[in-house]
Design brief:
The complex is a heterodimer of chains A (283) and B (330). Chain A is an alpha/beta fold and 283 residues long. Chain A is built from nine helices and seven strands. Classes of the chains: A alpha/beta (283), B alpha+beta (330). Chains A and B meet through strand 2, helix 5, helix 6 and helix 8 of A and helix 6, helix 7, strand 11, strand 12 and helix 9 of B.
Chain lengths: 283, 330
Amino acid sequence: MDPSQQIREKAKELLTSGAVQCVIGYERATDGVTARPLFAYEVEDVDRFIFDQTCSHNLTRYLLDKRDKDTAVVAKPCDSRAINLLLNEKQIQRERVFVIGVACQGVVETEWNHVTERLQTRCELCRQHTPVIYDFLVGEAPEEEPPSQAYPDVSQIEARPIAERRSLWEGHFSRCIRCYACRQVCPGCYCTECFVEQLDPLWAGIRIAPPENEIWHTIRAFHLAGRCIGCNECERVCPVNIPLSLLNRKLEKEVDQLFGFQAGLSAEALPPFATFEKEEILE
Amino acid sequence: MMAQFISKKDLLAWLEKLIQERTLIAPARTNDLLLFQLISRVDDIVLNSNTELSPKECFFPATETLFTVRTNEGHTELVAETVDRETVIFGLRPCDAMGIALIDRPFLAEPADTLYGQHRARTILVGLACSQPKGECFCTSLGGGPDDATHLDILLTEVEDGYIVQAVTERGKEILPPVAERELPLPPTPSLEAIPTEGLPEVMKRFFEAPYWSRLADRCLHCNICAYVCPTCYCFDVRDYSTKGTVERVRSWESCQSPGFTRIAGGYDPRPTKGARLRQRFYHKFLYFPEQFGALGCVGCGRCIRACPVNIDIREIISDIQRMGAKGGA
C-alpha cells in the first residue's frame, strides 16, 4: 500500500478510537507541488494526508505545543531522533505520543512552487532509513547500506586557514535578519525564554548587525552541541541562505569524536553534557 | 501613442552617471539571494525577478541609531542622526512603491518620524513595470497593478530594445534620462489571480473569536520571516546602549509574531498564545490598519507566501475569511 494511504488509515483509526486528539502529518501546500504540515483533529481531515519525497519538515517540533494532549506524529528516521531527544530531556511523555514512523529513502530539494529530483545533501549522506522509535511503521525499510563519511564539507572548511574561515562566517552572519526561524523550527530549541530575549543580563541586544548576529548563531550552535539530531530544518527555513548545518555538524563531529555520542539514537543514553564522571579527563 | 523611449545602452549610461552623482540602490545577487543593494557596478543589477526582501529597509533599516547622548566633563550633548545622502532606488516594482506609500502613513503622520522622513525626502523611486508577475502575485486585488505608476517618481516599461519612460513626479523629471519621442504602444497589462478582498475589514470584525486562528497557528512557527520580508510591516523595538559617557538609542525591526513582543512590565502578556499572535498579523493588516489609515495593509507582492517555511498563505486566509463571512455565523 502506498505510504499516504497507510498514514490516512492509521490516522483514521487513532482519531476514531479516541487514542489521540490530533494527528500531525503532511498535506499538499497551496503551490500544488510541495508539502506543508497538517494537523488533523477530525476523521474528515485524514484524506488530506500525503507522504512523498517533498515531506521535508520535521514535525516533532510541534509535540512541544501538544505536551498535555495525546498526539500522533508522522516521523521520518531523522525526525524520530528528535523524539528520543525530547524524551531524554523530559520534554514530552512517551505515553502521550503515538509515533507513525516512515521508512525513508530521503527527501528532495524543494522551494516554493518548485520540486527538484535532487536528494537533499543530508539525505545523500544519511544511512538511517528506518525510524529509531515508532509505534507503527509505514513503508518497508530498505536494505541498510554501509555508513559513509558524513562530514566531507565540514572537513573541507576545517582545512582552510583561520582568516578565511573567519571571513566566510562573517559574510554569512552579516546577511542574518534575526527572524529566528532557525530557532522556531528546531525541536531542540525550546527554552521558555531564549537568551537573545533576556534583558537582564543582556546577552545579545536587539541590533540586527554582524556582531550581534554572530553571538546569536554561535551561542545557538553551542547550545545544540550533542543535541542537534541533524534534521537540517534550520538551514531549510533560513530566508537568507546561511549554511547552518555546517556549524551544527561541526559540533556533532566534535561530540562524536570526544564522547562517541550521537544525539537521539536512544531515549535512555545519558547525553555528554548532562553527565559528569569523576574519571573523565578531556585532553 | 507617442511615448518617451530610451534604449538599453542609453539606460546603462544614465545609470553609470547616477552612480557618480548619487547613491544607487538596485536589485543585485548575493549568495543566490536577490536583494536591494548599494550598486557600484551597473553590471551587478538584476531585473528579471523581484527581490527576496522588500525595499522598505532603505527607509526603515533593520537597525539604525536614532541619536546619541554624550557626556563630557559635565557637559551633556544630544546628537541626532541625520540622512545626508541623495539616493535613487532603481528597479523597484509597483507593489513595493505602494508598500512605501502605505508605511508613509504611520511614519509620516504627526508627530512624524524624523529619520524616516529624511530617508524619504532624499530618495527618488525609479520603478520597473512587471511584465511577468509570479503566480502568487495579487497586487491587482489590493488596488495596485503590475504597471501602476502611482507611487513612483519614474516608471520604466520594458519594450523591444529598451524601455518606455514615464516621468510621474517633478522629482522624477529632475533626473530624467535622455529620451526620444517614439510612436510606441504600452504593452498590455498582465492579468493576475483575483483574491476576494472586497469588504474584508467588515468581515474580519465578526471572526475575532473564531477557532480558525488557533487552528491556523498550529502550523505557524512564529518566526519573523513574514514580517521581515513584508513591504508593509513596520513594527520595531527600541533599546538604549550605554558605554562610558555615551548612550546610543537604537531601533531594530521587531514583529508581533515574537514571543514577548507585547509583554509588559510585571510579565503580563496580552497576546500569550500562538493563535493570538498569528491573528494579530492579519487583524493589523485587514482591520486595524484600514481603520487607522484608510487602506488594507498589504500590497499583494507574494513575498510572505514564497518565504513561509510552513505555507501560511495570506491568499488562502483572505479566501477562508470571506467564505466564513458568506456562510454567516460568528
